Structures are given as structure tokens and as C-alpha cells.
């Protein structure tokens, strides 16, 4: 599904991502881990085309999508969530999720103004899909809550809900468990599996090692921009280069 080849990003004199290679199959749960500053978020920004690589390619379902821009990437079915919480201001949770769906809505502006049958049908489908996503995230009871009033954990979930509303094929989750307590993290792990079972392939960047080891089927480890190991959670936990990178030996 995804093929990253020789991906490199140099900022001034700093090589943030260095000749990174990995592939991903549809339906697989892959995590990218590594110490702070290793280049993980930059890697996501390169895949989602928020940044142009210095060199290297990103292919998605056989098509070269390198540097085509975030909107074009989203049209191919790739969305990302952000390491920081997004502020959704004074919209309700349901309205916020509908924002994510909007790009999928085929009704024309005139259709929406004159409320054609087509526009009404699109609106109904959008609403049903938003409710489905909220249900999946365990947020149905919060549909009419103002987004800005949500606690941190639910705000992180809302970021995922908005991304899922666009009906992506691939979702890039940047530290989805950041700041969550252990119960929320356990639910988060279940949620990642549910997302995959819905037919959306997740890639995670994550610091919570217990969560990474329990949810991932394969792990890519990066340090100073370069891949230093790749394997199953069991293989990664025994890898000497990985232990060294984390202990700073
Ligand atoms: P991670 O997500 O693994 O913690 P990042 O990808 O955010 O790491 O950053 C990798 C390195 O690139 C860091 O040294 C960071 O300071 C640097 N970096 C990230 N974005 C930029 C930028 N826009 N300009 C300059 N340096 C950047
Ligand atoms: Mg990061």
C-alpha cells in the first residue's frame, strides 16, 4: 500500500530524515518509534506532503505521490493527525466531525442552497457517517458538547474522528496516546484495532512503549533520522541497537 524509498529531509545543516526505507501492507498495524528529535514527525509530514523531501519517493497503491501537496494526498485517501491537540473553538463535537467529512460531500453549493434531493441525501449520509465515527470512538454521548470544553483525552479522540470522517485508506497518527492515562491508553489501543478492522490502515508514531508493543504488528525504529531496526515487537525489544539508542549508550 505504501512504499517509502530513500526518503531524506535536510533542514539547513540538519538531516532530520536520512535515506529512510520501509513498506506497509494494507491492514497492517505499523509503528515508527525512536528518541525525541529522531525525525518521526518529519517523516509523517513528508508522507502527507506537508513538507517536500530533499530526496526520495513516497508511493501509495503504486502511484508516486511525492510532494503532490496535502490536499492531493488527502484525495488519495491519506490523512494525518497532529502531535499537538487541534483547537476546534466553539463548534460542537458533531459539527467538528462533519468538517472532516465535508470534502467527501458531492453536492454543489447551489444544491445546498436550494436543498435539492441530492443535497438532502448527501447531508443525511454525512450525518449518519459522523454518528458512526463518534460511536466508534465512544464519543456518541458527547455529540452536542462544545469541542473546546472537552477534556484532553477526548480532544485527542476528536482529532482522530475528524481524520476518520474523511473516509481515509491510511491514517497517520502522531503520538495518539500522548498525555492519556493508562485506562485511556488501553481504550486507545483497542481503538487502533477497531480502526484497522474498519478498513483504515493505521501508522503510529508513539512514545508509550507498552502501548506500542501491544498494538503493533511491525515496528520501524529510527534514530537521528536513520532506520536502525525493523521487526516484530518481540524482535525489537531484544535488538541491541535499539536498546543502545534508548539508553543513549
Ligand atoms: P520527532 O518527531 O522524532 O521527535 P521531528 O521530526 O519533529 O522529530 O524532528 C526531527 C529533527 O528535525 C529535530 O532535530 C527537529 O528540531 C528538526 N526539525 C523539525 N522540523 C524542522 C523545521 N521545520 N525546521 C528545522 N528543523 C526542524
Ligand atoms: Mg514528533
Largest sheet: 6 strands, mixed
Order of helices and strands: EEEHEEHEHHHHEHEHEEHH
| Shape field | globular
> Order of strands across the widest beta sheet?
6-7-8-3-9-10
Please, what is the average pLDDT?
Answer: 90
Number of domains: 2
Q: Find the structural class using helix and strand composition.
A: alpha/beta
Question: Which regions contain 5 or more consecutive residues with pLDDT less than 50?
Answer: none
Bound molecules: adenosine-5'-diphosphate, magnesium ion
Q: Tell me the number of helical segments per DSSP (H or I, 4 or more residues long).
A: 10
CATH architecture group name of the largest domain? 3-Layer(aba) Sandwich
CATH superfamily grouping of the largest domain? P-loop containing nucleotide triphosphate hydrolases
| Cα-based radius of gyration, to the nearest Å | 19 Å
How far is it from the N-terminal to the C-terminal residue, by CA? Answer: 36 Å
Q: How much helical structure, as a percent, in the residues? A: 40-55%
**What's the CATH topology name of the largest domain?**
Rossmann fold
Sheet-strand content, in percent, reads: 15-25%
Describe the structure.
This protein folds into 2 domains: 1-77 and 168-249, P-loop containing nucleotide triphosphate hydrolases (Rossmann fold); 86-166, no CATH class. The protein has 10 helices and 10 strands. The chain is an alpha/beta fold. The protein has helices at 40-47, 70-76, 93-101, 109-113, 117-136, 152-165, 182-197, 209-215, 233-238, 240-247; strands at residues 2-11, 14-24, 30-33, 55-60, 63-64, 78-80, 170-174, 201-205, 218-223, 226-231. It is globular and about 60 Å long. It has a 6-stranded mixed beta sheet, sandwiched between helices. It has a 4-stranded antiparallel beta sheet with strand order 2-1-4-5, with helices on one face. The longest helix has 20 residues, at 117-136. Strand 1 (2-11) and strand 2 form a beta hairpin. Helix 5 (117-136) packs across helix 6. The structure holds adenosine-5'-diphosphate (ADP) and magnesium ion.
